[in-house]
C-alpha cells in the first residue's frame, strides 16, 4: 500500500465540465465591523460579543460597543473553535498560535467571558502556516498544524488533571507547496486544505485511514474557484472557500458521500468595497452563520450572514473496542508485520506467547505484555499457525509453521514448553511458485496437515511428518480459487476449512485429505465484508464457534456464525485507548489476526483478539500487533454468542 496517494475529484463531474459550469453569483448582504485583531469569531447570536485575535493586539473579548471586557496579552494568529462534550458539560475550546515562540495556544471562556488558558505548548519544531480543529465521533479533539515544509501534522488534544491539556502527535500528512489554509468538516471527518492558491484538496481525518488526498476543485479556467482558494471554513457538512477575485465565497455541500459545488450559493462580495481578503472564519450562532473576512489593507472585517444549513446526519459508524496491549514496533518501516498466532502455555496462561511474522525478516516472539522475547531471522515469513503435541529430539514440543516467501517453503519451528524458545527445525519444500498464506489442521487422530496457497489462487494440502528428528511433508491434495487468496483457518473439531479469496469472499470445504474439493460459499464481498479479505480466525465458545474475518477495505472486523447460513452477527473497529494513560492507537489495514477463548487471566479471562496493525500511529511508528480482550468485544456487541 503506498504511503500517499492521490484520488480523483469528489465531484461527479469532471474538471473540464467544471470549467464550463455557469455560476450565478448571489449578491451578498454584508456589513462591516472594526475589531483590534485579524481573526474574529462571533460568540453569541445577538452579536454582542466577539473574540478577536491579533499578533500585535493579543486575544480579546470585545462587546458590541467596541470595549474589551477581557484579554490575554499574548501575541497570536489563526483562530478556530469547537464545542466538545465533557464530564462537566459542553465546553467551547479555541485554538490560536503564538508565532513569536512557535507555540500552540488552547483556551476557553468562563461564564463571565474571562479567559482560561488550557494549553501553552512547548515550541513545535517546524514553521507553522495555519491551523484547524476537529472533533471526531468519540468526542476527541484533534488539531491540525500546517507546516511550511509541505506537511500537515495531526495531534490529539487530551484533557488531563488540573484543567490542563496534552498535545499528542498522531501522524503527519504530506501536502503540496504553499498550503496555507485548512478547515475540517466533522460530519464527514474530512480535512480540507488550499494549496498554492490553485487547488482545493480533501483528506480523511481518521488516524487509521489511508494517507491519501482527493482533489475537490481548482482555480479558473479549469474549475470554479476564480483566482484560487484562500481561507476555508466548514459547518454542518458544508464547506465555504474564499477566492480573492471579487472577492467571492464559494459553497460545497456533502451529498451522497461527496462534496458537490453549489452553483446557486456563490456569493460575490464585489459591492463590499474590499481591497484585500484572505482569511475566513465561521461563527455558528443559531439560524444563521456569520462568515468573517478580514480586509488587511482597510483593517476591518466584512461580515456575511448565510443560512444555517440543515444538519447533515453524521456517517453511520461501527462500534469500537479498545486494545489494552500492543507489541513493540517492527524494526523496519513500511509493510512488515503480517500475521499473529498464539501459543498457550500448558500450565501458566500468563506465560503464553504471541508469535508474529515479519515479511521482511522472519519470526518475532512476544509475551502478553507486548515485549519482544525472541527474533528468528529466517527470511520473509508471511503467515503463521500453531499446533500442539509433536515429537522432536525425543521429547514432546509444540510446533509453529510459517510460509517462507524467500524459499517457497513451510518453515517449521519447535516450541520448547519449558524455555518458551522457538527453534527452526526444517524448511519443507512446496511446488508453489509464490507461496503466500497458510494455516494448520490437526485431525482427531493427531495427524498434522498444512494448507498453503499461492498468489495465483492455487492451494496445496501437505501431510506433515513430525515423528522423526528431521521433519518432512508431502502434498496430499490440491484445489484452487479464481483469484489471489491469503488467510485460512481450520476447525480441528469439525474438520472444516475456511479460506479467504481477497477480492471475492470467504469459502469453505472439508479439511480431510481424502475429501472432495468442492468449495462452498460462506460470505461474498459486499455489505459487511470489504475487500481485501485478509486474516481469518475461529473463536471456540461454549455455545458454538464464531468465524472472525479482517475486512481490510474499511478497517473493520466481521464476526459470523461458522455454521450455515453463516449469519453475520456483528462488525466492529478497533479504536484508540487513552484510558489510564495507556496511549494505544487503534488498528487499521489489518492483514492477519488470531483469536482464542482460552482463559489467559486478567483482562483476557474470556480470551483475546490479536490483530496486525497496518498503520501504527500515536505517534507514527513501524507496524505492530494490537491485543483486545474478547470480553470487550462481547460486551460491546451483545449479539455475539459466548
The secondary-structure class comes to: mainly beta
Low-confidence stretches: 8-23
Strand content: over 45%
Helical amount:
under 10%
Kindly state the number of beta strands: 52
DSSP helical segment count = 2
Mean pLDDT over the residues? 91
Which features does this protein show?
single chain; about 650 residues; mainly beta; 6-stranded mixed β-sheet; 5-stranded mixed β-sheet; 2 helices; 52 strands; about 0% helix; elongated
In short:
With 642 residues, the protein is mainly beta.
Structure description:
- Strand 42 (485-491) and strand 43 (496-501) form a beta hairpin.
- With 642 residues, this protein is mainly β.
- Helix content is 2%, strand content 53%.
Spell out the blueprint of helices and strands.
Layout lengths: L4 E3 L7 H5 L5 E3 L2 E4 L5 E4 L6 E6 L3 E6 L4 E5 L4 E10 L2 E10 L4 E7 L5 E6 L7 E8 L5 E7 L3 E9 L5 E10 L4 E7 L4 E6 L3 E6 L7 E7 L10 E7 L2 E6 L4 E8 L2 E4 L4 E3 L8 E8 L3 E8 L4 E8 L12 E2 L3 E2 L10 E7 L9 E6 L3 E5 L5 E5 L4 E12 L2 E10 L4 E7 L6 E8 L5 E8 L5 E7 L3 E8 L6 E9 L4 E7 L4 E6 L3 E6 L9 E5 L8 E9 L2 E8 L4 E6 L6 E7 L18 E4 L11 E6 L10 E6 H7 L6
Parallel strand pairs: 1-19, 2-24, 28-49
Antiparallel strand pairs: 3-27, 4-5, 5-6, 6-7, 8-9, 9-10, 10-11, 12-13, 13-14, 14-15, 16-17, 17-18, 18-19, 20-21, 21-22, 22-23, 22-24, 25-26, 26-27, 29-52, 30-31, 31-32, 32-33, 34-35, 35-36, 36-37, 38-39, 39-40, 40-41, 42-43, 43-44, 44-45, 46-47, 47-48, 48-49, 50-51, 51-52
Amino acid at each position: 500500500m503506498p504511503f500517499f496517494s492521490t484520488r480523483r475529484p469528489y465531484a461527479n463531474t469532471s474538471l473540464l465540465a467544471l470549467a464550463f459550469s455557469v455560476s450565478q453569483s448571489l449578491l451578498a448582504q454584508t456589513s462591516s465591523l472594526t475589531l483590534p485583531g485579524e481573526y474574529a469569531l462571533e460568540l453569541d447570536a445577538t452579536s454582542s460579543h466577539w473574540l478577536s485575535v491579533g499578533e500585535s493586539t493579543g486575544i480579546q473579548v470585545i462587546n458590541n460597543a467596541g470595549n474589551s471586557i477581557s484579554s490575554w496579552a499574548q501575541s497570536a494568529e489563526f483562530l478556530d473553535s469547537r464545542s466538545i462534550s465533557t464530564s462537566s458539560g459542553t465546553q467551547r475550546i479555541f485554538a490560536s498560535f503564538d508565532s513569536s515562540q512557535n507555540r500552540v495556544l488552547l483556551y476557553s471562556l468562563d461564564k463571565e467571558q474571562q479567559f482560561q488558558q488550557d494549553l501553552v505548548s512547548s515550541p513545535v519544531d517546524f514553521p507553522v502556516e495555519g491551523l484547524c480543529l476537529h472533533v471526531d465521533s468519540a468526542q476527541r479533539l484533534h488539531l491540525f498544524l500546517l507546516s511550511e515544509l509541505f506537511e500537515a501534522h495531526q495531534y490529539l488534544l487530551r484533557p488531563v488533571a488540573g484543567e490542563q491539556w496534552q498535545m499528542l502527535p498522531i501522524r503527519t500528512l504530506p501536502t503540496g507547496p504553499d498550503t496555507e489554509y485548512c478547515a475540517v468538516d466533522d460530519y464527514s471527518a474530512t480535512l480540507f486544505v488550499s494549496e498554492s492558491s490553485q487547488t482545493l484538496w480533501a483528506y480523511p481525518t481518521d488516524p487509521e485511514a489511508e494517507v491519501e488526498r482527493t482533489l475537490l476543485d481548482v482555480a479558473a479556467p479549469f474549475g470554479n474557484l476564480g483566482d484560487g482558494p484562500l481561507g476555508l471554513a466548514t459547518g454542518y457538512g458544508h464547506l465555504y472557500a474564499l477566492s480573492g477575485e471579487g472577492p467571492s465565497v464559494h459553497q460545497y455541500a456533502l451529498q451522497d458521500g461527496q462534496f458537490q459545488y453549489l452553483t446557486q450559493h456563490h456569493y460575490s462580495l464585489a459591492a463590499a468595497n474590499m481591497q484585500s481578503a484572505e482569511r475566513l472564519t465561521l461563527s455558528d450562532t443559531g439560524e444563521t452563520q456569520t462568515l468573517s473576512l478580514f480586509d488587511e489593507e482597510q483593517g476591518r472585517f466584512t461580515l456575511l450572514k448565510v443560512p444555517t444549513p440543515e444538519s447533515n446526519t453524521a456517517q453511520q459508524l461501527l462500534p469500537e473496542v479498545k486494545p489494552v496491549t500492543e507489541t513493540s514496533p517492527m524494526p523496519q518501516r513500511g509493510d512488515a508485520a503480517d500475521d499473529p498466532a498464539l501459543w498457550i502455555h500448558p500450565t501458566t496462561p500468563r506465560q503464553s506467547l504471541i508469535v508474529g511474522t515479519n515479511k521482511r525478516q522472519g519470526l518475532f516472539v512476544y509475551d502478553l505484555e507486548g515485549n519482544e522475547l525472541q527474533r528468528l531471522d529466517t527470511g520473509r515469513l508471511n503467515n503463521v499457525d500453531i499446533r500442539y503435541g509433536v515429537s522432536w529430539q525425543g521429547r514432546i514440543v509444540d510446533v509453529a509453521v510459517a510460509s517462507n516467501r524467500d524459499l517457497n517453503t513451510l518453515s517449521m519451528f519447535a516450541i520448547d514448553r519449558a524455555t518458551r524458545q522457538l527453534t527452526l527445525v526444517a524448511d519443507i519444500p512446496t511446488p508453489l511458485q509464490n507461496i503466500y498464506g497458510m494455516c494448520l489442521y490437526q485431525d482427531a487422530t493427531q495427524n498434522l496437515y498444512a494448507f498453503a496457497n499461492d498468489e495465483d489462487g492455487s492451494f496445496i494440502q501437505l501431510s506433515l511428518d513430525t515423528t522423526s528428528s528431521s521433519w518432512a511433508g508431502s502434498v496430499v491434495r490440491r484445489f484452487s480459487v479464481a483469484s489471489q487468496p491469503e488467510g485460512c483457518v481450520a476447525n480441528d473439531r469439525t474438520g472444516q476449512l475456511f479460506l479467504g479469496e481477497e477480492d471475492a469472499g470467504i469459502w469453505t470445504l472439508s479439511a480431510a485429505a481424502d475429501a472432495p474439493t468442492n468449495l462452498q460459499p460462506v460470505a461474498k464481498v459486499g455489505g459487511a465484508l470489504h475487500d481485501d479479505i485478509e486474516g481469518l480466525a475461529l473463536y471456540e465458545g461454549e455455545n458454538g464457534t464464531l468465524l472472525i474475518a479482517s475486512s481490510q477495505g474499511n478497517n473493520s472486523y466481521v464476526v459470523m456464525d461458522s455454521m450455515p447460513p453463516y449469519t453475520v452477527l456483528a462488525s466492529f473497529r478497533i479504536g484508540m485507548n487513552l484510558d489510564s494513560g495507556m496511549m494505544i492507537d487503534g488498528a487499521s489495514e489489518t492483514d492477519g489476526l488470531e483469536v482464542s477463548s482460552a482463559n489467559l487471566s486478567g483482562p483476557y479471562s474470556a480470551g483475546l483478539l490479536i490483530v496486525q496493525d497496518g498503520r501504527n500511529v500515536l505517534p507514527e511508528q513501524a507496524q505492530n500487533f494490537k491485543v483486545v480482550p474478547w470480553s470487550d468485544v462481547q460486551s460491546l456487541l451483545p449479539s455475539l454468542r459466548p
